[in-house]
Amino acid sequence: MTQETGGFAALDLHPNIVAAVLATGYEEPSAIQQQSIPIILAGHDMIGQAQTGTGKTAAFALPILNKIDVSKREPQALILAPTRELALQVATAFETYAKQMPGVNVVAVYGGAPMGPQLRAIRNGAQIVVATPGRLCDHLRRDEKVLSTVQYLVLDEADEMLKLGFMDDLEVIFDAIPATRQTVLFSATLPSSIRSIAERHLREPKHVKIQSKTQTVTAIEQAHLMVHADQKIPAVLRLLEVEEFDALIAFVRTKQATLDLAAALEAKGYKAAALNGDIAQNQRERVIDSLKDGRLDIVVATDVAARGLDVPRITHVFNVDMPYDPESYVHRIGRTGRAGRDGRALLLVTPRERRMLQVIERVTGQKVAEARLPGPQAVLDARIKKLTASLAPLVAEAEATHGELFDRLTADLGCSARALSAALLRKATNGQSLDLAAVEREQPLVPTYTPRERTGERSDRGERSERGDRERRAPMPLAEGRVRCRTALGARDGIAAKNLLGAILNEGGLARDAIGRIQVRDSFSLVELPEEGLERLLSKLKDTRVAGKQLKLRRYRED
Length: 559
What we know:
- By secondary structure, the protein is an alpha/beta fold.
- It has four domains: 2-209, Rossmann fold (3-Layer(aba) Sandwich), CATH 3.40.50; 220-375, 3-Layer(aba) Sandwich (Rossmann fold), CATH 3.40.50; 377-442, no CATH class; 477-555, 2-Layer Sandwich (Alpha-Beta Plaits), CATH 3.30.70.
- It contains 21 helices and 20 strands.
- The longest helix is centred in the C-terminal third of the chain and has 38 residues, at 376-413.
- The termini are far apart.
């Protein structure tokens, strides 16, 4: 480990910061970290061109922590992020890297949460403020001097901020912080709008450009399965019947999904637990320790909650929900295949997510092979194999320790040895189906989704089949008090759900809980919004732009 420690220590970072970084599982600086950290430590403005997944958060967080004056209880560093989710991720990263720096306080400032506690945290001495531009401007309207002590400014994913329409907010923020500050800008692309910001607000910036990695870990066997959205939990339970795993992490998108899947797994007898943003830090540490020592075998987690999770015994990663971007996929499956061990990553893909699968394959440069859900015979064979493995260690001594009892029970019951053995097996297997007909009956197998359009059978489908297809494409039922709205922006426009969510939260002034499901399809998207005050909300959003195009939300009339 000495060599890896030297890698970070050679960057002139404080030993406590180096120790905290190594504790998260980083072994040596990434390319963006090696190039950016010395530039930022030296006090230069910088433009970094790097994709998500290259380690850019640590590239600016570590040198900024190194420069923070803990004795001063005032805002010293401001990090701007385009969305609530990214702001929370960055704030969590700062807290992780500052674990051995007593006195460092971090506050995340974003819409959808009460403003009072956020403003109090800033006034009470948080040295690091991680914020979305819209909410930060709300605070500046209350107290225009709140950022007057900021010395370091970072714009993270600047291109995304402009796509979400934050240009005016950024100008307000630039005016509210000292002109003598050090400014660092990270962006995946450098369009003219970003270059214009750099020319006006950065002083002789140094440039760093990192190409995103295009290869995943070759030791990881990857496969995908096509399923419908409502088949995911049954599909996971089927797969676990036949997959031989030591420990497994299952990724989902929402906190509720972690709870639902973990409950379903526990009901089937698996040692499983949920890991999400609502889990307290001490409980999170207990879950991870339990996964390490074998008290748990499965953790169901969101991307944010799994940050920094490094457990060598993880042999499988299940992507139960599709990640939002290819870089997240690379990060997820990197949880397995550690320390030279083989790993297996399975991805569940719904019909509408085929495009994202293609993007993942293009970005990673690897084909994600298609697999099939196990049939009844495979499930039966796996169950008998597990039963055999559990009985094998007992057979050698069982006759000596329990032989006389067996003879007495046979005599008392007046049955054959075969009948008694079968009864004991039935009791030991707790009613589990162990013959083919029973396995087929116990629960209909989840069919693997096969798009008929690709099989040349479309012209042969009858009226009932076509009606079934329409029903599968129909939107899910609405919650009471919500309506569905439509925008002509979809996946082909480069839109993801997080883009729509960020735009509506920041421009509409809504709390996060007010927005329901967001369904992004190829040529349009559907968003569930509160019916009360809908017209006023749509009016506020009429000039909102996402990915450079007008949002133009309209109430969706369903037939």
